[in-house]
Amino acid sequence: MFIATRRMYHMKNIISHDDNKLLLSLPNCMYRTKNVMEFEKEQDIDINIIQQVPHKTMTELEERQDMLLKKLDFLYDRIKTISSYCKINEVTIKSNTVSSAMTVPEETVLVVSPDNLPWFLYRILAKTPFSLNITWHIHSSVPKEKVSKITEFLKNLNSNKNGTGINVRLIFKCVSADSELRLSSLAVPIVGNVNILRYLSYVYPDILPYNQGDFNMDGFLDICHKLERSPEKHKADLINKLFSQYTTWICNNQFSIVDVAAYNAMKQSNNVLKSVPKMWLENCLKIM
Q1: Phi, psi of 109, deg, nearest 5
Q2: pLDDT at residue 217 above 90?
Q3: Which has the least CB within 10 A, 20, 78, 193, 255?
């Protein structure tokens, strides 16, 4: 061990502290600092950590730690014992089909594009117990070559001629590809045919069967939404996914809102209708 006994630099002694005649008055502070002019009698390197903390205190800490570990082991054994008595029963998912219909609005506005016509209205008009008074308007944004397509769609759309019942206003515009259902001027519109069908399933639960707790059904509805917005070259893959579980109907072998949404999406293009199962298409034509 090397201990320096001499100072590296010798400085001129300005005040002599070794003179006994010189007395320095030190303040009585809370904390006293070491006089830097005094020579250290004991180097810090010689101080052992055991000297800083008494051996008795370290022993008490170790004993307390052992006691805590034993308590944790005891609690863990109790938790294991309690969990062995708990029997986990299989969770049964209740059907969340809509049992009571929502209040039917007195007047609604449906804004649609001529390239995405609401063919699902045929299903509702054929089965609804309410009288629907349908009026329509073609916006100036619609080109003339698409007007004939709209008039052909409206030709077979039978509505109440008496002027009484629920008023449904159809507005054909070439602004957005997504349809919008507006229940009031202040409410946020329902955007997209799939979301509109979801809303109508609450109004007409017997006409559009929809189980909101069936995630498989919601997955098929998402595919129908993609089918409406995808280009022609990607629609074949979506149709294969849509009919992956097909036997008679698309979802759970039962007619549901999925079949209406799929038929509405495929009706927009004659090329798509040629690639779907013929039996399913015939069944849809019978009930639409």
Answers
A1: -125, 125
A2: yes
A3: 20
